[in-house]
Design a protein that fits this description.
The chain is mainly alpha-helical and 461 residues long. The protein has one domain (2-459). The protein is 58% helix and 4% strand. It has helices spanning 2-9, 12-25, 43-50, 57-87, 91-112, 140-152, 159-163, 171-176, 185-196, 203-216, 230-242, 253-271, 282-294, 301-306, 316-322, 350-377, 386-395, 410-425, 433-438, 441-448, 452-459, and strands at residues 115-116, 123-125, 131-133, 165-166, 169-170, 330-332, 339-341. The strands form 3 sheets. Strands 1-2-3 form a 3-stranded antiparallel sheet, with helices on both faces. The radius of gyration is 23 Å and the shape is globular.
């Protein structure tokens, strides 16, 4: 199966080596790639001209490697614009922009694994740093979900757990501390986690359907503008901010803690038999062994959390993300075999939007941890990227001022805005979008829209 073989042969180590070369040759000159790189602009046209035998190997390799970081940043920018649309009552464009943030997050992950997504011809970097064309021709929106799902089924998808960490310990270290030595477990968990915990990337195809309707059909026919979405949408956005507050050690403290618990639970299931799991203390004993092997006290709050003695419920984010965007409401019309999308009261529900935003949010967290790990492995610090990060900050009105800035301080303004909104909410019984724009709460929107801030403290962690 050539497609699977190509995805398997793409090499993350070659991307790291290429990023190291980019640091030496380009970052010192305040650029990601050479200005004369043939694929820097009009990329698809020049690739079509050069394929199959005249591809500029080094130039396309540097393009793919740098895009692992740049696509990640682009995704956070698109997501911020999606939230801005949501808080302004523009549901259709919120869906449109969330979909493209989702796509950029996946493209970032693929690029970090050595896979370059282009139009209908795609490329990968192998372990000799050669850039090779992927054997099957496939349009972008079809290729992306297929490629990432195939990657998720490969042993190397374990890199997911080497990138994510909690309390400075990669998830892979938590797995290694298991009392049971089952080598295949991390891959099994990666596959199961992708499919079960809201990261089932086959949803992208369905999100694409929803995006198309928002982009190409009159909004009046799809969105119920008589429903006041402002209050629930604002509450949803506030919760997103609260779960990614940095705490000094963890850049996304609450979210990462929940991700760790889900991962350990999957580890437990993958390494134990149904019979063993019948014991009421089996899971606690399993977690106790992990904590003991890592030298972490079982009297800690984290142990109580992992064993669900406290904060027993998963985040709403995961529940929203697990909802299929449309297919769960597909019905047969007039007894024929054609399926149509059923919409309550003939309109899409707000949870359709929450679902795509939640899936995107989780994917962006994964792409950010992957991008951050790529930079660390390439010995690149945020000060090496000051030329780029300072300009990014300026583009949305925030002074980054590298070198010398603690990126986690970017959350201070967010927390102030959340507190101010809570104060104003207490004075208005059921605030609407109109109320928001008539009160000082509108000033806080500028901050709450800026999820790019999370990219800055995440990439620097």
């Amino acid at each position: 199966m050539p497609f699977i073989t190509d995805i398997s042969n793409a090499d993350r180590a070659s991307i790291i080596e290429t990023i190291k070369q980019i640091k030496k040759k380009h970052l010192l000159h305040n650029r990601w790639i050479n200005l004369s790189n043939r694929y820097r602009k009009d990329t698809l046209n020049f690739i079509d001209i050069d394929r199959p035998n005249r591809i500029k190997q080094k130039q396309l390799r540097e393009y793919i490697a740098s895009s692992s970081i740049l696509f990640c940043s682009d995704g956070w920018i698109n997501f911020s614009r999606s939230i801005e649309s949501l808080l302004n009552g523009d549901v259709a464009n919120a869906i449109h922009l969330a979909y493209y943030a989702e796509i950029k997050a996946v493209m970032s992950i693929l690029a970090s694994e050595g896979i370059g997504v282009f139009n209908s011809r795609h490329y990968y970097v192998d372990n000799t740093k050669r850039v090779l064309e992927i054997s099957e021709k496939c349009k972008t929106h079809d290729f992306i979900p297929r490629a990432i799902i195939e990657w998720g089924n490969l042993p190397k998808s374990e890199s997911l757990f080497k990138s994510l960490s909690y309390n400075a310990l990669p998830f892979s270290r938590w797995f290694d501390a298991s009392p049971y030595n089952i080598i295949a477990s991390p891959q099994i968990i990666a596959t199961a986690w992708i499919k079960e915990y809201s990261i089932d990337l086959s949803y992208i195809s369905e999100d694409h359907v929803l995006r198309n309707e928002m982009s190409y059909r009159p909004h009046e026919f799809s969105i119920d503008f008589n429903v006041n979405i402002f209050q629930p949408a604002l509450a949803f956005v506030k919760e997103l901010w609260k779960i990614i507050e940095p705490d000094g050690t963890n850049s996304f403290s609450i979210l990462d803690r929940h991700l760790l618990r889900l991962a350990i639970e999957k580890l437990y299931i993958s390494q134990t038999t149904p019979k063993r799991r019948l014991s009421p203390t089996a899971y606690d004993d399993f977690v106790t062994a992990i904590f003991s092997n890592l030298g972490i006290s079982t009297s800690s709050y984290l142990f109580q959390f992992i064993t669900r003695k406290v904060e027993k419920n998963d985040l709403d984010l995961f529940e929203y993300a697990k909802k299929r965007p449309l297919r769960n409401r597909m019905v047969n019309i007039n007894g024929n075999n054609k399926k149509h999308f059923y919409r309550k009261n003939n309109f899409y529900e707000l949870e359709d939007l929450y679902g795509i935003i939640s899936r995107t949010f989780i994917l962006m967290r994964l792409s950010l941890s992957s991008a951050s790990t790529i930079l660390k492995s390439s010995t690149i610090s945020i000060n090496d990227l000051a030329f780029w990060l300072n300009n990014l900050g300026t583009s949305f009105g925030v002074d980054i001022n590298l070198p010398g800035t603690n990126m986690a301080d970017l959350f201070v303004s967010v927390k102030d805005s959340l507190d101010n909104i809570d104060t104003i909410d207490s004075m208005i019984a059921s605030p609407t979008l109109h109320d928001a724009h008539q009160n000082s709460i509108s000033d806080e929107f500028k901050i709450l829209n800026q999820f790019q801030r999370a990219f800055f403290w995440g990439i620097s962690s």
